[in-house]
Design brief:
Layout (H helix, E strand, L loop, with lengths): L5 E8 L5 H12 L3 E2 L2 E8 L2 E8 L16 H4 L2 E7 L3 H17 L7 E6 L11 H10 L3 E4 L8 H16 L3
Parallel strand pairs: 1-4, 1-5, 5-6, 6-7
Antiparallel strand pairs: 2-3, 3-4
The chain binds guanosine-5'-diphosphate (GDP) and magnesium ion.
Length: 172
């Protein structure tokens, strides 16, 4: 049914890494309805529609105790953890967020995609693609590099999220 097909995807990461830019591209393309800081978007992937509720702007909320029921660490069906490839400290924060998520949602097999954004800024790169990939292996999640500015790999990111969600749903 409709309720089964709506998935809350929480976008996490340090301020300035490009969370709003990544979500924003998609919003314009799909003419998503804005409801506060959540954007609903329906993607047609492999011939099936799935609706994601993209939840952005968690920079303050993420510091809420993970015990509270409305903590971003608790409300997501799936997570996108973003760092900037030009900012090593944001990469370290991404690891901390992953650890925090694992602690909060231990028993659950939640889809998580680690995203290295701003690949267009070639000369300012501080985190290599190999490091990003290795981090995703350690933390048992998917990995993709994107450029919100060039709109490179952004569609692939959200389609990948839909496929991850379906894998869990279908019990594969
Ligand atoms: P947020 O704080 O994580 O939501 O980050 P924003 O989406 O607000 O982006 C912060 C700044 O980084 C803005 O000036 C964006 O234009 C810029 N930005 C975001 N994504 C990219 C990208 O892929 N490449 C470049 N060069 N700049 C980006
Ligand atoms: Mg933002």
């Amino acid at each position: 049914g409709v309720a089964d097909a709506l998935f809350r995807v929480v976008v996490l990461g340090d301020p300035g890494v490009g969370k709003s830019s990544l979500v924003g591209i998609f919003r314009r393309e799909q003419e998503i309805h804005e409801q506060q800081e959540m954007y609903e978007c329906t993607l047609s992937v492999d011939g099936e529609d799935t609706t994601l509720l993209l939840m952005d702007s968690w920079e303050c909320e993420v510091r809420k105790p993970t015990g509270s029921s409305d903590s971003p660490m608790r409300i997501g069906h799936a997570y996108i953890i973003v760092y900037s490839v030009t900012d090593r400290s944001s990469f370290e924060s991404a690891s901390e967020l992953r650890i925090q998520l694992r602690r909060t949602r231990q028993a659950e097999n939640i889809p998580i995609i680690l995203v290295g954004n701003k690949t267009d800024l070639v000369r300012s790169r501080e985190v290599s693609v190999e490091e990003g990939r290795a981090c995703a292996v350690v933390f048992d999640c998917k990995f993709i590099e994107t450029s919100a500015v060039l709109q490179h790999n952004v569609r692939e990111l959200f389609e990948g999220m839909v496929r991850q969600i379906r894998l869990r749903r279908d019990g594969a």
